[in-house]
Design brief:
Blueprint: H1 51-72, H2 74-87, E1 93-96, H3 107-125, H4 128-131, H5 139-153, E2 155-162, E3 176-181, E4 196-197, E5 200-202, E6 208-217, E7 220-227, E8 237-241, H6 259-278, E9 283-288, H7 293-303, H8 310-329, E10 333-334, E11 340-341, E12 348-353, H9 362-377, H10 381-385, H11 393-415, H12 417-432, H13 441-447, H14 449-452, E13 455-458, H15 467-479, H16 485-491, H17 496-512, H18 528-537
Length: 538
């Protein structure tokens, strides 16, 4: 049985009517990717790819642009030096932190052993003959070059080699050498079927096993695979970069995000410079009421027209202008040396056309571009541009506080591997050869290698706008128990162990000489004015 739909009936009271409900516009709910009426989001093209694929696609071009800008920009070269100064300073201080209590060392013996390791390593690191494979550079120089490589290529690579006695130069005592290579020598080949991606071979778990470098030997270019680690787990290849994604294999220059704005700022500055250059060239225009050659031709035609009285008019005008030209010949307008204007006729006007300079909006526009570049590089705007006109004490302190963790992070992630990786192989050789004694011998060291090799690298001191205020704040933190010697010494770029040993040595030397120690609390820490006031009150 089928039923038909009936039309709904609405009863309406007499004298009234039915008004339909108004149609309301659909409500727009707040959500991600909600565009503006101008469609600014929709107009921006974007696609999602694996970050390592994106790095592989642009690596060579980005490295070429970054290297070109670093080589042709004094501002970027200075910024690179500033980053090295903030990250490395003069050199990174090695601070070994092994726990030797499990190997029969008491506290005093552990301190003595650590002091011996640090002193011997410093001698090795500052001797190009000992530390450098090419026998040219010191380890601090390698660290500086590695940071520059990171700026240009986004990564730094090096190889640890052991040279036998037959291959060492005369006078060389150690066989551990560090070879720093340009990242462009690490090939861009990819074969995911064999685990090779952008020059690095990985195993089934994604662990790097070999690095393929392009070398030039006897004029012939060859490709050589270097093992990431040896059979005992020693790290042989140092690869320092800052990954953006967990799948990243290679690094990318931090300048890559600044290319567009940097080139915009450079083009703007070039345009302003061209305007200033062109302002030195001016155009002189002499406005005159004298007739041109066409006017004199018209007067000649007037004489030949046959009109009554035309001859007299033409001859009168010719005489008038002839007189004017004779007077104008006596005047002159000179340019160059001895420039000047001696006389102009009543109906003449001399104008100088110049080029107007850009408006005042160009300076803040360029400053905004420079701020973005400084932010991407992790340095202050003042340090990038040397412009401190708008800086204050408070703003300088805020800049230092915000940028100091970035400098420490670069020290740990980028600069420190240039010291820690060769240090591990060097200490392995020193203990294995018996030049540095170790309880239990080399076998015990090899079985506990990672725990004994644990070390940190200390960078330069934290910048400050007022040394006195920082010193007082440091003393207050130590006095109230909220600070540690490691932290306070670390902000100054000092090793707490070296500070203690130095203070103890000089304290005992002063006391043994019958002099007052400068390390006594309160001695030498007050100004002469305060001392005089205290003496007067006493």
């Amino acid at each position: 049985m089928t039923t038909t739909a009936e039309k709904p009936r609405i009863r309406v009271r007499a004298g009234s009517s039915v008004v339909p409900a108004p149609q309301t516009a659909p409500r727009v709910r707040a959500s991600y990717m909600r565009d503006t009426p101008s469609g600014v989001i929709a107009s921006r093209p974007a696609s999602l790819r694996e970050h390592r694929d994106e790095i592989r696609r642009v690596w060579w071009r980005a490295a070429a642009l970054a290297m070109d800008m670093l080589q042709n920009s004094g501002r970027l070269r200075g910024a690179a030096d500033q980053i090295i100064a903030d990250t490395v300073g003069v050199e990174l201080q090695l601070n070994p932190r092994p726990d030797l209590s499990a190997f029969g060392y008491d506290q005093k013996e552990a301190i003595e052993w650590t002091r011996l390791v640090k002193s011997r390593f410093k001698v090795w690191a500052w001797s190009p003959l000992e530390c450098d494979f090419r026998a040219k550079f010191t380890l601090p120089q390698h660290t500086d070059v590695g940071v520059r490589h990171w700026l240009a290529f986004g990564e730094s690579v090096g190889i640890v080699e052991y040279l036998p006695l037959s291959q060492r130069l005369p006078g060389t005592k150690t066989g551990t050498k560090f070879l720093l290579l340009s990242p462009q020598k690490l090939v861009q080949e990819t074969n995911e079927a064999s685990g090779l991606y952008q020059g690095i071979t990985h195993d089934a778990y994604g662990r790097p096993t070999h690095y393929r470098f392009e070398e030039r030997r006897d004029g012939i270019t060859v490709k050589t695979d270097y093992a990431a680690r040896d059979a005992d787990g020693r790290q042989l290849v140092m690869h320092a970069f800052d990954p953006f994604s967990s799948d990243d294999v290679r690094g990318l220059s931090p300048l890559a995000t600044t290319f567009r704005k940097y080139l915009m700022a450079e083009n703007t500055e070039d345009a302003i410079a061209q305007v200033h250059f062109m302002q030195t060239i001016y155009a002189a225009i002499l406005k005159s009421g004298k007739p041109s050659a066409e006017a004199f031709e018209a007067l000649s035609s007037l004489k030949e027209s046959g009109i009554e009285g035309a001859d007299n008019v033409a001859e009168g005008l010719m005489a008038y202008y002839g007189n004017k030209l004779e007077r104008a010949a006596e005047a002159e307008v000179r340019y160059g040396e001895g420039a000047g204007v001696s006389h102009l006729s009543l109906d003449e006007d001399l104008e100088f056309k110049t080029i107007s300079t850009p408006g005042g909006q160009s300076i803040p526009f360029i400053a905004s571009l420079h701020r973005e570049q400084a932010r991407a590089l992790g340095i202050s705007y003042g340090g990038y541009t040397m412009d401190y006109t708008a800086s204050t004490y408070a703003s300088t302190n805020m800049e230092n506080s915000a940028l100091w963790p970035l400098a420490q992070r670069r020290t740990d992630r980028i600069a420190a591997p240039h010291v820690l990786v060769p240090y591990a192989s060097w200490l392995d050789e020193e203990i294995g050869e018996g030049r540095i004694p170790f309880k239990g011998g080399y076998e015990v060291f090899l079985a506990n290698r990672e725990a004994i090799l644990w070390a940190l690298c200390q960078g330069p001191s934290k910048p400050t706008a007022d040394d006195e205020k920082r010193a007082k704040a440091s003393s207050e933190r130590i006095a109230n128990g909220t600070g540690t010697l490691e932290r306070e010494c670390g902000e100054l770029g000092d090793d707490p162990e070296e500070v203690f040993e130095s203070r103890l040595m000089w304290h005992e030397r002063y006391v043994d000489a019958g002099m007052r120690s400068p390390f006594e609390r309160g001695y030498g820490s007050k100004s002469s004015t305060e001392a005089q006031q205290q003496g007067a009150s006493a």
